[in-house]
Amino acid sequence: MRSILFFLFILVWFVSHAQNQELYLQTFTKQQGVPQHKITSITQDANGRLWFGTSHGVYTFDGYNFIDINNFSPVKLSEIHCMMQVADTVMFVGTSMGLYKIHNHTYTTTPILTQKKITSIIHVTPNTIAFSGIGSRNLYRCTFDLTTQSYSIDSTEYPHEITKIYRDSKQRMWLLNSPHSITMQDSRGIHNIALPSNSLQLLLSDIIEYSNSLLLGTSHGLYMFNELEQRFELFSMEKTRSSELFITDFELSKNGNLYISTDNQGILMYTKHGTIVPIIPNNSSIHNSVFTIYEDSLKNLWLSTLGNNLQYIRFIKQPIGNYWNTNLSNLTENLVKTTYQDSYSTLWIGTDGGGICYIPNSPTHTTVYELANSPKKIMTFEQQGNTLWVGTYVNGLYAIDLKTKKIIPHPIYIGKTAIQNIFDIEILDAHTLLLATLGTGLIQYDIFTKQATHIHTIPFGKETFRIDAFLSSICKDNYGNIWIGGYGQGIVVCNAHMEAIQIFNEFTQNQTITNDNVYDLKLDSKGQMWIATWQGITKVNTQSYTITQYPTQNYPAFSQCYSMQWSKQTLWLATAEGLVSFDTLRNTTQTYSDKRGIYSLASQCNHITLVDNTWLVASGNNGVSVIPIEKLSTLAKPQLQFRAITIIQHGTIVPQSSHIQLPHNNNTLRIVFPIIDFVNNYDIEYSYTITEESKDKQYLGSSYELQLTNMSPGTYTITLYARYKQHSESETSYTFTITITPPFWQTWWFQLCIVIIMCITIFYSIRLRLYRMKKQAFILEQKVTERTKEILSQKEELQVQTEKLQEINDELLRTNSEQSKLFEILSKKAEPLQTVLPKSHDEELLEKTMIYIHEHISNPNLSIEDISNHLCITKIQLYRKIKSLTGLTPIDILKTTRLKVAEEMLLQNKYSISEICFHVGFTEPKYFSKCFKEQYSVSPSDFLKNKFIH
Fold it and tell me: How far apart are CA 26 and CA 682, in angstroms?
């Protein structure tokens, strides 16, 4: 009786477990590079890559891209039936054309046995495989030596064609024969195994040993081998007729269960206790017709289904702690906005649309209860004695009696306006609450009188500060000051009398925080206030009010931080990216999300609560998770390994090695180094360093490809890095070296030969040069003697020329004297000129010029063109005449005349300097003084002073 009850208990547990199991389903599409051919075989190599055999060839998948192996080998494969990984670098592939070997890293394909249709491969020993296929009555054995890369094949003939082979734990060889019979070979010989009377209708698909039983999959159900009667019998199932199952494939799970794929009922799980349960819900996107099933190293399932679709299934089970959502518990709504643990160890859960739920004695107990008659949209909780205050969205303020679990509404009105959206509650004293509301601003509520006061403004020194209407959080510091945060106003700090003493927003100088949209405020154990905003976090010393910013530019994980909690030196944050831990001593961050195993954090983390500094409650869009804090460090640091690094050189894959040597004319490489993590691959970022070029790390972002072009000869040490985004301590690296061999003309021996040849050439060149120098010295000596004679002759000639130059100099002195006299004549007025100067044509021209200048000397715009027009000659003629007569240009004469007239007027002492300036044609006294000083070495004012003093 006890055994029956135990069996029923196990059965119920497995069924309920399968039904409540959360699944992550994904369909790979053509846009992601999925081969659009029927997938007949799936396996995984030692590097973590998945391999898919299709009707058109073999493809490999690194978590990002599907790669067609036919693109890298001259041997093209098609009609793949089976694949098997052997050792770490060899993949055996059975096709309709024969058996082939593919090197895992270089993708080179080598034929082993051709002209045979291979449909089944099994391991016999570590270095031996057995294989066979349709149309063949031979069971082949292939023994290989990876060291010498040699293979030997022998075969055994059977009376029937073989479609599939299997070796059980008793070393018996089972052969599925075409089309519907089975043979077993043991030490005694070959035996035909009996099948049921309908065996002619059965199509035998697969055979496997599981839980000490031999199971046979057919087109009409699951059969189990009866050892006593040496026959297969139909396996009976409750609620399901086994004969209706069309079994296509078996896959032994790493958890100890057996997956069964069917052509009509999807995926089933056969447990160790002899039960068969479906593992995929009927409303899922996975087709019921499954051809092939495979479990990878991360215990994820890969399915090939009808329509050439590739499906991926990840079983979600929170690895540590507890997890509640509507499918797993009585939680009324998956979208949880806030949580709170009261002094009675009750965990209160506020949902967005499902009201209030609670878990007594959390986290020891896990039963979720719904609070009757609670409002639907909960924003905040705050305990005061035996009362738990509840702030809601739309429904205002409520109070819960923690002993009776009864909820009491506390309607609040300002005039006739009902206060509905309460985002935070701060208890000032035994009878006063301070409420942060969305739309009404700051409300002070008296619990006993039930009177509310709307605080519009507060005094700030001699001015008044207006409280914003959209508030989000309130927090009291150790000095009794109240910090108020809002959406757009930043932070205002008030004393107990509600007088502002500090304001932190973008409009205050030297008091800026990361952003004025404030979500939460938290005080740490040192009395420092932490401010969570839209664009980062700010730390403020509550005594000195000094600010430390942690903006999203430097800390991307801090974007859109909704809630904060402190645990020792770690600040925990609920953000749009998930749950974030910030180690304030080491200045490092870690991010946790649903992909990290905290399945309540679908899309984002809405709120966090600490329980006894030991447990962390994370609420999100998919329920609530309660996790031991000490376990999060293990969860947050996955061990990354570079399991698939491919180096491609001109379309050819280079064999993987820690040191790669390449010729100088093949110096362009493409390095592909994806992390094989089918769950979190798109959350990984890559970088690299090349010590030959730069020690600085070069970031690639989400790209895992590195292109190196035209590398110069030398040895390069390349280090590849990968880490989860926002997980600064999860980085791993892989280092290898590449040597680019130089061309022969850059080799040491060639350069040494060149040096020797150059030394010999230089030596003989020097000897030849010395000989030529001696010869030239003799020739030069002869030339010097002749040149000396020529120089003496030239010296005599130079003496003659010197005498001639002396005569020319005397003539120039005479001419200069005459020009000086002429200048004195020009500086006088026209009347004296008429009496003194001779009346030659040139002198008349000069006289007319001076008369015209004196007549128009007050005109500041008087130009050489005016003078030439007056004299009826061109400007060039005037310039040449004046220059030849006076040695001065017409401009110099005009300027000199103005200054000379100015000197005469200054001597008369009848006019001011300004009057004289404008009279002689200057428009600016400052410029006039400058020109006068250049002419007479003194300014006009000093000129007058000196004249009248002396």
Answer: 14
Q: Which residue has the tokens 């376990």?
A: 631
pLDDT of residue 830: 40
Residues 332 and 355 sit within 8 Å (Cβ to Cβ): yes
Taking the C-alpha atoms of residue 324 and residue 339, their distance in angstroms, rounded to an integer, is: 13
Order across the sheet with 336-341: list the strands: 336-341, 347-351, 356-359, 369-370
The total number of residues shown for the chain amounts to 950
For 284, phi and psi rounded to 5 degrees? -80, 170
Q: For residues 166 and 205, what is the distance between their CA atoms, to the nearest angstrom?
A: 12
71-103: b or e for each residue (b if 16 or more CB lie within 10 Å)?
ebbeeebebbbbbbbbeebbbbbbbbbbbbbbb
Q: What does the alpha-carbon distance between residue 518 and residue 491 come to, in Å, rounded to a whole number?
A: 8
Nearest to 904 by CA among 832, 837, 847: 832
CA separation for the pair 875, 868 (Å, rounded) = 6
**Predicted pLDDT of residue 19:** 35
Three-class SS of residue 31? helix
Q: What residues form DSSP beta bridges with 351?
A: 336
Listing DSSP states for 156-176 in one string gives: EE-SS-EEEEEE-TT--EEEE
Task: State pLDDT tens for residues 547-585.
Answer: 999 999 988 889 999 999 988 889 999 999 889 999 888
Q: For residue 923, which amino acid is it?
A: T
Report the DSSP beta bridge partners of residue 250: 260
What are the pLDDT digits (tens) for 659-701?
888 887 777 888 888 888 777 777 788 889 988 655 678 888 8
Closest CA to 582 of 564, 607, 600: 564
**645-656 as b/e, with b when 16 or more CB fall inside 10 Å?**
bbbbbeeebbeb
Cα dihedral 913, 919, 920, 926 sign = positive
Q: What is the pLDDT of residues 219-261, one digit of tens each?
A: 888 888 988 888 888 887 554 566 678 898 999 888 888 899 9
* CA gap 847, 309 in Å, rounded: 112
Amino acid, res. 271? T
pLDDT tens for 348-378 read 999 999 999 999 998 888 899 999 999 999 9
pTM for the whole structure = 0.64
d(CA 386, CA 408): 13
Q: How many CB atoms lie within 10 A of CB 373?
A: 11
Burial 438-456 (b: 16+ CB within 10 A, else e): bebbbbebebeeeebebee
Contacts of 468 (CB under 8 A, 6+ apart): 441, 486, 487, 488, 489
Our CA angle for 373, 379, 384, nearest 5°, is 80
Confidence of residue 637 (pLDDT cuts 50, 70, 90): low
Q: Would you give the distance in Å from CA 339 to the centre of its chain?
A: 33
pLDDT at 606: 94
Give pLDDT tens digits for 78-103.
999 999 988 777 889 999 999 999 98
Three-state DSSP at 258 gives strand
Euclidean distance between CA atoms 349 and 617, whole angstroms: 10
What DSSP element (H or E) covers 896?
helix 890-908
Q: At what angle do helices 748-826 and 890-908 cross, to 10 degrees?
A: 50
Using alpha carbons only, what angle is made at residue 865 by residues 860 and 866, rounded to the nearest 5 degrees?
A: 60
Chain-centroid distance of CA 168 in Å reads 50
How far is it, in rounded angstroms, from Cα 913 to Cα 905?
9
Please state, in angstroms and rounded to a whole number, the distance separating the CA atoms of residues 606 and 601. 8
